[in-house]
Amino acid sequence: MSVANFIPSVWEARLIEKFHARSVAKAITVPPTKIEGNKIIYNVVSDIAVKDYAGSVTFDELTTPKREIPMDQQKYWAFKVGDVDKAQAAGELIDPHVREAGAVLQETTDKFILGLYESAHADNKLGTQEAPIEVDKTNIYDTIVDINKKLDKKRVPRSGRFITINADILGMLEKDDRFTRNYTVLENGILDGAKINGSQLVLSEDVDTTSEVVKVIANHNTAIGYGEQLQETEALRLESDFADGVRGLAVYGGQVLRPEGVAVGFLKIKTTP
Q1: What is the CATH number of domain 3-47+62-114+225-256?
Q2: Which of 4, 138, 143, 237 lies deepest, with the highest CB count within 10 Å?
């Protein structure tokens, strides 16, 4: 690759393709209605009143209020390819670095979105950071059922639900006979073929594990809004080095749109004596 034949649009397309394929955030959230500048726009569905019929009908005025979420998260990447490296490279240099940039961007945005569990409705929290629920292979399945039940109590539709877990939780589930062994882990973390009480399981190592308290997050996809875009991607000849540089800036943002549609379990894995 050289600055002369660098085409930003091609590079951006490759990066976005790799990022979207891996992104848990994209899988478990609802895409925006549109993006205006640095804002993600959602149209909110109006409440519909059900009335007693007494011979006449009154029509409610429908409104679609606009919800705006700022894309206030900014991340950049930059790397250089030295002239000597280019001359000695046996293969293409750009694609491996595109994959790496996409992977790091995915991990960063997934941590951001999965960190929004703090905005879950107060009724939808099982345990706390200070007093987590102790789990092992004997009760992890039932504990996840209890987390999912929090959404049931808030009348959240079952279709479109996700439960995000990490490998430690999955390992315990696999020791429970009620859990399926016939699943496939897709690139974006979806455990294809693995559901608990109708909720799709998702595997991610980007869930919060502060102080060894593992978060298990259940949500309906419409409960969390998320959007991202690449602002700039460019190549340049570095004046102070014998190398070409590539740099890019990504912006993104997200918020919980429906707190009742998010539930979280604060779990601590029991230690074996």
Answers
A1: 3.30.2400
A2: 143
Burial 157-185 (b: 16+ CB within 10 A, else e): eeebbbbbbbebbbebbeeeeebeeebee
Residues 6+ apart with CB under 8 A from 171: none
- Looking at the chain, the domain(s) classified CATH 3.30.2400 span 3-47+62-114+225-256
Put simply, whether the predicted model's pTM sits higher than 0.90 gets the answer no
pLDDT category, 106, cuts 50, 70, 90?
confident
pLDDT band at 20 (very low <50, low <70, confident <90, very high): low
Which residue spans of the chain are classified as CATH 3.30.2320? 123-223+260-269
Best CATH choice for the domain 123-223+260-269 from the list 1.10.10, 3.30.2320, 1.20.1250, 1.10.3470:
3.30.2320
User: Average pLDDT, stretch 164-188?
Assistant: 94
The tokens describing 224, both together, are: 């969390």
Please state the three-class secondary structure of the chain as a single string: CCHHHCCHHHHHHHHHHHHHHHCHHHHHCECCCEEECCEEEEECCCCCCCCCCCCCCCCCCCCCCEEEEECCEEEEEEEEEEHHHHHHCCCCCHHHHHHHHHHHHHHHHHHHHHHHHHHCCHHHEECCCCCCEEECCCCHHHHHHHHHHHHHHCCCCCCCEEEEECHHHHHHHCCCCCCCCCCEECCCCEEEEEEECCEEEEECCCCCCHHHCEEEEEEEHHHEEEEEEEEEEEEEECCCCCEEEEEEEEEEEEEECCHHHEEEEEEEECCCC
